[in-house]
């Protein structure tokens, strides 16, 4: 594990994290527009994983270092928390990102299979945006009513149930996995250059 100590994050890595966060945010919010139709909000995590999986995989190839993925992944939910979302989002995301980071670590940041699995797990964080409905119902209602048209919350309330959330989480994982596989094929040279096999 000595090489992990040599792979400490540097200033250029932190700058790269910032750049990728901006790109990821842009994609996330663009795809998030589909959530304007309540029923599509349930498939949003799956679609986000498929589309943004390549971004996450490219990040993993560019910054194969300890805690890079965790830092990259926790910025979006923290930002959303400061914009008014409940603590459910950053807290759940913290656990997800920690698991994704540990998966990468188990492959010593050199395993493509572990990076793909980490990408799939990474994508589950967005499910906690919907999970707020179940765990912080009144606060989430207040947040939603302040931003969305009349009737939207009621429609969402009928859709977001525990059984449906299990499907949403599964969809998020599969979407992230599909996106990672696509990223693997598109970014083969980047992984070879980073020494990830």
Q: Mean pLDDT across all residues, rounded?
A: 94
Strand content: under 5%
End-to-end distance = 17 Å
Q: Provide the gyration radius in Å.
A: 17 Å
* SSE pattern: HHHHHHHHHHHH
Instruction: Identify low-pLDDT runs.
Output: none
Shape: elongated
Counted by DSSP, the helix tally is 12
Task: Outline the biggest β-sheet.
Answer: none
Tell me how many strands there are: 0
Which structural class do the helices and strands define?
Answer: mainly alpha
Helix content range: over 70%
Tell me what you see in this structure.
By secondary structure, this protein is mostly helical. The chain is 78% helix and 0% strand. The chain has helices at residues 2-6, 11-32, 38-41, 44-62, 68-82, 88-106, 112-122, 127-135, 137-147, 152-159, 162-186, 188-193.
Question: What's the topology here?
Answer:
Elements: H1 2-6, H2 11-32, H3 38-41, H4 44-62, H5 68-82, H6 88-106, H7 112-122, H8 127-135, H9 137-147, H10 152-159, H11 162-186, H12 188-193
Helix pairs in contact: 2-4, 2-5, 4-7, 4-11, 5-6, 6-7, 6-8, 7-11, 8-9, 8-11
Key structural traits:
197 residues, mainly alpha, 12 helices
Quick overview of this protein structure:
This protein is 78% helix and 0% strand. The chain is built from twelve helices and no strands.
